[in-house]
Amino acid sequence: MTVQVTNSFMKRLAMAGLVLGLAAAVAACSSFPRPSMPRLPFLGSGEKVEEIVETEPADRLYNEGVALANSGEFKNAAAKFEDVDRQHPYSDLARRAILMTAYAKFEARDYDGAVAAAQRYVTLHPGSEDAAYAQYIIGESYYRQLPTIELDQKATERALSALNDVVQKYPDSEYADQARQKVTIAYDQLAGKEMEVGRYYMKKARFLAAVNRFRTVIEQYQTTRHIEEALHRLTECYMALGVVSEAQTAAAVLGHNYPNSPWYKDSYTLLEKGGYKPEINQGSWLSRIIRRDQA
């Protein structure tokens, strides 16, 4: 799967005269004589000489980068685009080259490099029509590095933040829908991590610590697939702690929202064995969440 340079993006480059007949252009460029290094005199002791830097035309470098990218040589393409930015920093092509550097580095799976280039583009050109694309590259780069549930979720949090920026700052862009879908998955990943830690604490009979994890899922990740299990685990933990009213409330909320859930059946059975039934306690923090959501 790749982050595509969309048709609209390529059309804008073409209108600027940047995407040329690449084969002919590159072939023609290759025949240009390269400037030779001048002969330098020997330096006396302590003498210094300014460094002489060779430069190539910006459009030549840029089109060579595009040709390399079209051939799948993304690492080399990124180097060409970086040369445009380095050798011609104040040119209009330099702005486009920063974005193309981000794209090429992403395709080369240099996600840290892609993030750095895309962040630079967004910082320097926040009002550009391609800023949404750059922001999406940031989010997608983090998203491609989502760790497994067992590992630290810092990358997931960064992906969620960057993708939310796409949705909030560029809601009408062509990347917003893709970002929303990945935001849902990132939320589910974070909720899954909380569930894993909560279950670990349960196995260690650290029920209060487990409650805090499951409560986080209820309060912050209500739209994820983990919500049913989280309510059931709260029922189990509160029963183990002897806080029956909270256990009843958790089960009642679970049954109200997911009456056919197997998790609700387990919660109901657990309460029934103790001589109780699901019942909302109006003083419970769960009740406050329900009232807040209904307001």
Keywords:
295 residues
Estimated structural class: mainly alpha
**Low-confidence spans:** 11-44
Number of strands: 0
Q: In whole angstroms, how far apart are the ends? A: 42 Å
- Percent in strands: under 5%
- Treating each run of at least 4 consecutive H or I residues as one helix, how many helices? 14
Describe the fold and architecture.
The chain is mainly α and 295 residues long. It has 14 helices and no strands. The longest helix has 28 residues, at 176-203. The radius of gyration is 28 Å and the shape is elongated. The two termini are 42 Å apart. The relative contact order is 0.06.
Give a brief description:
Helices cover 67% and strands 0% of the residues. It has 295 residues and is an all-alpha fold.
Strands, helices and their partners?
Elements (H helix, E strand, L loop, with lengths): L6 H9 L6 H9 L27 H13 L3 H14 L4 H16 L3 H14 L6 H13 L10 H16 L6 H28 L3 H14 L6 H15 L2 H14 L4 H12 L11 H10 L1
Helix pairs in contact: 2-3, 3-4, 3-5, 4-5, 5-6, 6-7, 7-8, 7-9, 8-9, 9-10, 10-11, 11-12, 11-13, 12-13
